[in-house]
């Protein structure tokens, strides 16, 4: 067990919160993940109208290429990152298949809908399936070629990664990909990103790495910092440490210059009873501080002055997500569009309070909820990501803490992996 770090004076925490509230820019441009594992959501057209009229969100990320969603954002000024589901990767890995895929899934909607990026699969590398892994980079390349041929060269191609891709993530300067995947998959993938000027997409979640002792470090609140003895950098937030671990892994392969974008990050507003650090105020602190941090242009200690395009997870609470309570409570909004918390992205309020929300027409609500639960994961899959935490079921305990030098060397990529097992974000192809 880690020692309890010295608590910052309460006044300092309070002052920090006030500072956060006062210092958020009045208009924040931000992306959001629009997941639909729910049977309570309004139709995409109402969601698009809501985002446009009531929020400063100008980018959405969707987990498929649902035609209703793509149509809904036509002419909205909101750009869309679409996902080619895992099941389409084989088709995409050959140019003829990629051409057909672009003709049927993209051409009917672009450029009326500003499709900015296509994610090829979701977190393929964190749950390696050797046939998908072998096809991933070829699929990215042929999709990119098919888009160029169709005249859609503004649409970029990437694939999102859970931080389970890292064999070593602490200290950040020691970050590296799993050997076997580094030269075979990540080097050619990063080469593709460099050549096509597309971002390496990662999903950092300090939520899956914090303990009671590291809550302030995870939330960007004042804390004693965590020291990287190699670089002599004192990390004061876990997000920077996670991003720098990714950077170090890329840089080790010679691709430190490739852009990084954040496909998902967030903080839930509810969890199992007794879990410290979860609730609307904690979520608002994390997301508010994160948005301020990524838009500040400050970058991270190893990536000074970089900006990261960021998609918050998530737009709505999703009642049909399996797993722990937190899984159903990542949303900034409830399905009726009422905010769970506000981090400064709402606008259009009248002086008397709320402006009317778009009408909810229950008769036309589409049900996108019939999605499969994730594939079961077993221990042989888990072993591929490193040793199990010593403490068995409480995986929180081996995260680095600001107070205990000894625990700083404990690897926590396995924690990220184990947590990502329960953070279920698997989506099946809806448009078969
Ligand atoms: C499309 O979206 C991208 C990325 O958000 C943005 O840079 C670009 O200006 C948008 N294009 C149009 C025509 O709105
Ligand atoms: C790996 O992916 C392929 C292609 O989608 C699929 O047919 C196969 O069943 C998957 N294998 C495993 C072990 O999940
Ligand atoms: C790290 O930074 C924090 C906050 O600025 C400071 O309180 C702490 O003393 C620093 N620790 C080291 C080892 O430099
Ligand atoms: C665990 O997964 C491996 C690889 O996917 C598989 O070969 C094995 O049969 C699975 N074991 C169980 C108990 O499901």
Automatic annotation (TrEMBL):
Residues 1-29 form the signal peptide. Its EC number is 3.2.1.39. Pfam families: Glyco_hydro_17 (PF00332). Belongs to the glycosyl hydrolase 17 family. Residues 397-406 have a biased composition (Polar residues). This is glucan endo-1,3-beta-D-glucosidase. It is an enzyme of class 3 (hydrolase). The lineage of its organism: Eukaryota, Viridiplantae, Streptophyta, Embryophyta, Tracheophyta. Gene3D superfamilies: Glycosidases (3.20.20.80). InterPro entries: GH, Glyco_hydro_17, Glyco_hydro_17_plant. One of its GO terms (molecular function) is glucan endo-1,3-beta-D-glucosidase activity. It catalyses: Hydrolysis of (1->3)-beta-D-glucosidic linkages in (1->3)-beta-D-glucans. Keywords: Disulfide bond, Glycosidase, Hydrolase, Plant defense, Signal. GO terms for biological process: carbohydrate metabolic process; defense response. Residues 352-407 are annotated as: Disordered. It comes from the Eukaryota.
